[in-house]
Amino acid sequence: MIQAVQDLKRLREISAVVVRHGFGELWDRARIWDVLGRREDAQRPSREGVRATTARRFRETLAELGPTFIKLGQILSSRPDILPPDFIAELSHLQDRAAPMQVETVFELIEKGLGRSAHELFASIDPEPMASASIAQVHRARLASGEDVVVKVQRPGIEEQIRSDTDLLFYLARFLEGVIEETGIYTPTGIVTEFRDAMLLELDFENEARNIDEFAHNHADRPYVVIPKLYRDLSSRTVITLQELKGVKLKTALDSGDSPGIDRKQLARHVLEASFQQLFKDGLFHGDPHPGNIMVMEGNRIGLLDFGLVGRLTKQMQESIIVLVLAISLRDPDTVARLLYKVGVPDQRINLHHFRQAIHDILDRYMGRKLSEVDPGVLMSELVDLAMKYKIKIPKEYAVLSKASATTEGIVRQLDPELDITQAALPYAKQLLYDRYSPASMSGGFLRVLLQLQGFLQDTPQQLAQILMDLEGGKFNVNVRSDELSRLNTNVKALGILLFTGMLASGLIVGAFSLAGRASEGVGQTVWPLAALIGLSLAAMLFGAALSWTLLSGRVKKISLRRFLK
Asked: Which of 165, 282, 288, 416 is catalytic?
């Protein structure tokens, strides 16, 4: 009962702020006032408020509503697939600041999170916080060994507050979703659900610790990138302790112009190379690489900070990005359209001709320009915007990558305007393609396909037999023409032939790989690889011949399942 009263009070507070910033029409259309009742403090916006841009009023609304909504805005600022560019730019200015906690409270939270008192674990802790945000507070500290560290401590009650606020957000989203047809492919409830999941993950400092470990492993052989050392024994779900990186924030270096000891061109290459390594090799990239999250260290090394937001790319995603870049460089709108349609999730059938033409119009604007004059981040953002217009939902990994890439390119162009970003990416793209289509990778992929095919051929006859038994037993009431039964019988026989041939070919392949594995044994260094090659060739020829025979003889034909079960 108490919680219900508190929720109603909070809903009224939210409503008053929403109306004050000029978004009352949403509440009117959603009939939220029928639940809350109008209040005197739900005043209409001033003239100045009305004149402000919608994006600015949206940012001011979130800022006034507090920590949960500020974090929502920050997460949305990395999602160009959800919001248009002017909103993205406006939300990037949201500042997450909060009144600092007393140092005694910090000590209590450290003891609660780590199981021992702060005085036992640290030689000293600076009472003045380095940063104080809505989720956590950061302090400098020193270990007994003399190492300088930073300790991030989660605010008490923040998880409960975020859960409560997101529950209210979900409640409001359902109202809006029921009356606003413009919600499109990104429904309000879907956005709130995704935000809640992201926030709860960010509240788990152990997840951030895992990200740091993975980044440290990936960058271990890259001396120009520094990942802060994680102190596992001084970290938990609510406390995390990291090495303090010595240097200056990249934002400070950019704002101050030429700084002594900083080679801007070399720094630009390091930022770009780190980004390309994450994109094309690691498949794990920093989701928020703004200048405040990058340290400039001695020797023009870069130190990465804040690993709460990261993106992950599968091999297939990496390949799609390469193909997209190549298609753009070749001004091939058909391939770009097919790829965007393939990686996305269309909300409805689209006119592919119009979609291709729209992409053609975008690419036309870049005709005649050198690759060095094309800003890949801006171009990618335009394509994401176009996908939104046609209601093609782009996976969030691509959207986060688009924003992160645009941020990185902006940094690089500030540091070294002459650096050709596209040309610098080519060696990484070529290496990724080589790794994908190398003999070792191809043979492994071929074997996986054959194993999958073998499983399919093993299962299909049994499944078809079960269907026939069910039909024979009268378990289906269907009308089947005799020619379809005849076709089904023919297909069963053909699949039986393919099954036998596939199993025989698989046996030859397994034997061939076994022979190849003995290649290091004495005289077999020449004989065994040759025998393996012959075995693989026979397997491919045998299976290919059987497959061709069945297809060309018309034995495998498609069955209309709709007609079959009509």
From this structure: 288
